[in-house]
Amino acid sequence: MSRFAVVIADNRYASYREEESVLREVDASVTIFSSSSAEEAREAFAPADAILVNLFPMNADIIGSLARCRVISRYGVGYDNVDVEAATRKGIWVARVPDYCFEDVAEHAMALLLGCVRKIAYKDRMVRQGRWNLHRDQPCYRMAGRTLGIVGYGNSGRCLHRKVFGFGFARVLVRDPNVRSSVIRAAGAVPADLPTLLAESDYIMVHVPLTPRTRHMIGAPELAAVRPGAILVNTARGQVVDEAALADALATGRLAGAGLDVFDEEPLPAESPLRTLENVIFTDHAGWYSEESVVELKTKAAQNAAAVLAGGPPVYPVNSV
Questions:
Q1: SS3 (DSSP) at 308
Q2: Is the separation of the CB atoms in 149 and 201 below 8 Å?
Q3: Side by side, which strands form the sheet with 93-95?
Q4: CA separation (Å) from 313 to 23, 32, 97, 279?
Q5: How far apart are the C-alpha atoms of 217 and 221, rounded to whole Å?
Q6: In the chain, where do the E strands start and end?
Q7: How far is residue 180's CA from residue 176's CA, in Å, rounded to a whole number?
Q8: Crossing angle for the helix pair 102-118 and 155-163, nearest 10 degrees?
Q9: How confident is the model over 108-165, as pLDDT tens digits?
Q10: For 60-67, which contacts have Cβ atoms below 8 Å and span 24 or more sequence positions?
C-alpha cells in the first residue's frame, strides 16, 4: 500500500503516465475523479493527501471538508477556481504551473492576430462558397509601421514581444504596472498606461491573469477610446474584457476585428451576439495547447504535489502556509 494518496479531479487526459511517474518517487498512488458532483467530490477527496485539479471548483465548502489534504495543485497558470483564502486557513498549499505554455500562447495570439489582419477565416468561408476577389468586401492593411500594444508583460506577453520583432512595427507599447519601466524599455518597448495604449495601438494583445483588479479592465469606456479600426486579441481570460461591450464595439465598427480564444462562458453559448459577427475569429481556449505543453503541464503539476508530500513547499506556490 502506498504511503500517500493523490486524487486527480477532472478526467481530461488520455493517460496519466507523467503524474504517476513523478508521484511514484514519493510513494504516492493516483486515483482519478471524474464526477462534477460536490457530494461525490467530498467523499472522493476525503482520503487525499494531495489533489491535482483542472476545472473542478475547489470552493470553500469543498476545501473545508478536506481531512488530510496538504496541497492543491492546479493544472494551469490561473487558479481562479480555487479558493486560496479557504485553503490557507486550512493550512493547505495552493500551487499552479505558471511557466509551461507561454511559447504556445504567444504563437496562438500571433496566429489570431494574423488571421484577423489578413481576414483568413472569412476568406476561407467565402472561397468554399465559390466567392473570389474578396478584398473588395474586406480590405487588408499591412502591419509594418503600425503600433502593437501588449496588455500584461508576464511570460506570454514577453514571449510574444520577442516573436514579433520581424514584423516591422513602428512601436510596441506595454502596459504592466508590475514591471519596471526600465525593464520594458530595455526590451525595446515603450511603457504606457492603459488609456494611452488603447488610444494609440492598432493591435491590442491581452495577456493578463484574471484577478479582481483585471476583471472587465477593458469595458465599454475603454473600448470607446480605442483607435478606430483597431484589432483586439484575447488569449488570457474571457472576463478580462467585457464581452457585451466587445460585441457592440465590433458590431459598430469601432473595432475592425477580434481574435478570441477565451470567453465569459465556455463553450461559447449559442445565443452569444459574438457568433453573428463576421469580424471575429474564435478558437476553443486552445492557446495553451501543444503536445509538448501537455507533457510539461502534467509533469509540473505533479511535481508541486510531490514536493509537498516530500516535506517541502510546492515548486510553484500561490500561498504560504
A1: helix
A2: yes
A3: 28-33, 4-9, 50-53, 71-74, 93-95
A4: 15, 24, 14, 47
A5: 10
A6: 4-9, 28-33, 50-53, 71-74, 93-95, 147-151, 171-175, 190-191, 203-206, 230-234, 255-260, 280-282
A7: 8
A8: 50
A9: 999 999 999 999 999 999 999 999 999 988 899 999 999 999 999 999 999 999 999 9
A10: 60/85, 60/86, 62/38, 63/87, 63/90, 63/92, 64/90, 66/90, 66/92
What's the grid cell of residue 79? Answer: 487558479
Distance CA 294, CA 291 (A): 5
How long is the chain?
Answer: 321
Residues assigned a catalytic role = 237, 266, 285
The pLDDT tens digits of the residues spanning 75-97 come to 999 898 999 999 999 999 999 99
C-alpha to C-alpha distances, 196 to 144, 149, 192, nearest whole angstrom: 20, 10, 6
Q: How far is CA 313 from the centre of its chain?
A: 25
Average the pLDDT over 61-78 and give the result: 96
Describe the chain by its helix, strand, coil percentages, rounded to 5: 40, 20, 45
pLDDT digits over 191-218, tens only? 999 999 999 999 999 999 988 999 999 9
pLDDT tens string 23-52: 999 999 999 999 889 999 999 999 999 999
Give the burial string for 96-115 (b: 16+ CB within 10 Å, else e). bbbebbbbbbbbbbbbbbeb
Secondary element (H or E) of residue 21: helix 17-24
C-alpha cell, 119? 481576414
| CA–CA gap between residue 301 and residue 304 (Å, rounded) | 5
C-alpha cell at 279: 469580424
**How is residue 42 written as a grid cell?**
467530498
How would you label 185-203 residue by residue, b for 16+ Cβ within 10 Å and e otherwise?
A: eeeebbbbebeebbbbbbb
Q: Provide the 8-state DSSP code for 290.
A: -
Model-wide pTM > 0.85? yes
Q: How many helices (H) and strands (E) does the chain have?
A: 12, 12
Q: Does residue 264 contact residue 239 with C-beta atoms inside 8 Å? A: yes
